[in-house]
Write a structure and sequence with these properties.
Blueprint lengths: L1 H25 L2 E7 L7 E9 L5 E5 L17 E8 L2 E2 L2 E5 L2 E5 L5 E9 L9 E2 L4 E3 L7 E2 L7 E5 L7 E3 L3 E3 L2 E7 L2 H5 L3 E4 L2 E7 L2 E8 L6 H19 L6 E9 L5 E3 L3 E7 L6 H16 L26 H18 L5 H17 L8 H6 L12 H4 L5 H17 L6 H15 L6 H12 L4 H8 L7 H6 L3 E5 L7 E2 L2 E2 L7 E2 L2 E2 L4 H5 L6 E5 L2 E2 L3 H5 L7 E8 L2 E8 L1 E2 L5 E5 L5 H11 L3
Parallel strand pairs: 1-12, 18-19, 19-21
Antiparallel strand pairs: 1-2, 2-8, 3-7, 3-11, 4-5, 4-8, 6-7, 9-10, 10-16, 12-15, 13-16, 14-15, 17-18, 20-21, 22-32, 23-31, 24-26, 25-27, 27-28, 27-29, 29-30
């Protein structure tokens, strides 16, 4: 009886505290002023005003990572000059953890916090500021009050001299593009901001307004981009049956050697090479990137693994399903470009063969499963070292191949009535729209099985959770194709080292697992100077004269000291597949092929 009474009292206390806190929170107003007095030195200054407080202290936090990029990046490392004032008087404040500042708010209803952020890392996931423009990746710019992630805020941007434009998915306040409203911090952190004089390309697709903010120039054709990007958008909307946005923004950073992308709820950020648009393969690569990040509008931003939301911005958010979130998106980026006819069927098959070759030749594919690759992205994929290729597999490439297997099998079993598209739409409608939550591993598997018409325990056991080589022949045969290995029957010798261009030195950067170099003790950072006492400048040319089984003495400098290593060369253990059509495909195979490759 006493325990029941105690439990009731505790519940009442918690309820009262929550009610009081909720009442206080409803009266809190949060706003930011963002200025750039030293943009040329890569700094922004943030003024954060908070009113309506009624508490002893307030903790302000900076996220340690940004959703979509699975690495703890410690954004707080770039914050400096933190101060807090009330009524223009300095008040007590200080750090209590790596990304948390505690402010004494006892007896105060309003505070003003000021801090600077250094931003000089131009990527799709980090902030960058110079005199030409500012890219604000919101997770690395805005502190948030602990416990108030669901609270709205207002952001007022004061541009650096000469800047005239703002590109972001956040909505302007009263039509002022430099004053923005964030409904909550999840949306703020999912809404990057570009300021400067970017070239803005605008077009509508079936009632949805699109903006492409081109920063950094480039030899792109504005009208061609409008047409081809609209085609991609329509093909992807057709998969899910709706476009959940009324407005969407592409922020594109054009640099000398750009690359990469990052998805957001109503926008994305792309890195591109400014001079590659006039090159047909370069242009296709840009369209692939557009298709990939825009497909994330559904897959991962809405249809998501259950672990990816609501986000914990202090810690890693683990899931074993990044092979679906990213791998399936990688599959669709190519198949969607094919559906727009910007890829020929042959170009698509060549891209698919490249994925197959990568997985087949990666030693890590026999060490790390797809599920493990997803879970360990935080410590492996985004923290590569000289041994990464030996111990990991990309959930992008291999995940894309699993999507291919599912697609071909579903098309085959249903006699082209269904495809993987139907799985994605079913999962989107069932979990995002119907249940307002993410899916579990088992739920996604059941969704695929619904259309495959059978248990997929074998596929998961062998290819998702296991390390078996994929039976490409079986699945490609469903569409009347097969693999041919162009290196079959070769008897070339291999040493098994990677050596990048390095001022003429043969400096080993990687050693392939179970290769001759691996077995006989050549190390990363060894400088190869001679083979059989003869100075070597072209390693491939020398090894090309040898045969598997030949014994050589490799002379190296290791930490400045000479060392001679006896090595027995082994056979080059690589494949180079190409996908070819069967000479006499059946009517069923041709039916699958037509559906899969969108053939006329």
């Amino acid at each position: 009886m006493k325990s029941k009474i105690l439990a009731i009292i505790i519940c009442l206390i918690v309820y009262t505290m929550n009610s009081a806190t909720g009442k206080a929170l409803n009266h809190i107003n949060i706003s930011y002023i963002v200025t750039f007095p030293e943009a040329q030195a890569h700094y922004t200054e943030i003024e954060m005003d908070i009113t309506g407080l009624d508490q002893k202290f307030l903790d302000l936090k900076m996220p340690v990572w940004t959703p979509g990029s699975y690495l703890v990046r410690e954004f707080s490392k770039n914050v400096e000059s933190f101060t807090a004032t009330s009524d223009q008087r300095l008040i007590s404040s200080g750090k209590i953890s790596k990304n948390t500042w505690r402010v004494n708010t006892e007896g105060r209803t309003a505070i003003k916090v000021k801090y600077k952020v250094y931003a000089f890392e131009l990527s799709v996931r980090t902030s960058y500021i110079d005199a030409a423009h500012a890219f604000l990746s919101s997770t690395s710019i805005f502190l948030y009050p602990d416990g108030l992630l669901h609270h709205p805020s207002t952001i007022h941007l004061v541009p650096y001299k000469g800047w005239t434009k703002v590109s972001t998915s956040l909505e302007p306040v009263n039509g002022d593009p430099f004053t923005l409203h964030a409904p909550d911090y999840d949306i703020l952190f999912d809404s990057p901001i570009e300021l400067g004089n970017q070239d803005v390309i605008e077009f509508d697709v079936d009632g949805v307004h699109y903006q492409v903010a081109m920063s950094g120039g480039g030899n792109y054709d504005r009208e061609r981009l409008k047409i081809d990007m609209a085609k991609i958008i329509r093909k992807e909307v057709a998969i899910y049956g709706e476009n959940p946005n009324k407005r969407y923004v592409f922020i594109v950073h054009n640099t000398s050697r750009g690359g990469g992308g990052l998805e957001h709820l109503s926008s994305c950020v792309l890195g591109a090479s400014r001079d590659n648009y006039a090159n047909e393969r370069g242009y296709q690569g840009f369209l692939e990137l557009v298709a990939h990040e825009h497909f994330h509008l559904w897959n991962v931003k809405r249809l998501r693994p259950i672990a990816l939301g609501p986000f914990d911005y202090d810690n890693e958010n683990y899931t074993t399903n990044l092979w679906i979130a990213e791998g399936f998106t990688a599959y669709y980026q190519d198949i969607v470009v094919r559906r727009t006819q910007n890829y020929s069927p042959q170009t698509y098959l060549e891209a698919l063969a490249a994925d197959i070759n990568y997985v087949a030749n990666a030693p890590g594919s026999r060490v790390q499963s797809l599920a493990e690759a997803s879970f360990d992205a935080w410590i492996k994929l985004y923290r590569p070292n000289e041994n990464t290729n030996n111990v990991t597999i990309s959930y992008y490439n291999k995940g894309s191949i699993i999507a291919l297997l599912f697609d071909l099998e579903i098309i085959h079993v249903s006699k082209a009535k269904y495809s993987l598209d139907d799985v994605m739409r079913y999962m989107y409608e069932t979990y995002y729209k119907g249940k307002s939550r993410g899916y579990t591993d088992a739920e996604f598997k059941a969704g695929v099985e619904k259309f495959a018409g059978r248990s997929l325990d074998d596929v998961y056991a062998k290819y998702v959770n296991g390390l078996e080589d994929v039976d490409y022949e079986y699945y490609l045969n469903l569409a009347g194709y097969h693999l041919t290995d162009e290196l079959a029957g070769n008897n070339d010798a291999a040493l098994g080292v990677g050596i990048p261009a390095n001022n003429g030195k043969l400096l080993v950067s990687s050693v392939v697992r179970n290769s001759a170099a691996w077995i006989d003790g050549i190390n990363v950072n060894d400088e190869i100077t001679a083979i059989d006492s003869v100075k070597v400048t072209d390693l491939n040319a020398v090894i090309g004269t040898k045969k598997p089984g030949d014994k050589v003495v490799v002379s190296v400098l290791r930490d400045g000291l000479p060392l001679n290593l006896p090595v027995t060369l082994l056979k080059k253990n690589l494949v180079k597949y190409k996908i070819e059509a069967l000479e006499q495909a059946t009517a069923q195979q041709l039916l699958v092929r037509k559906k899969w490759l969108s053939l006329q």
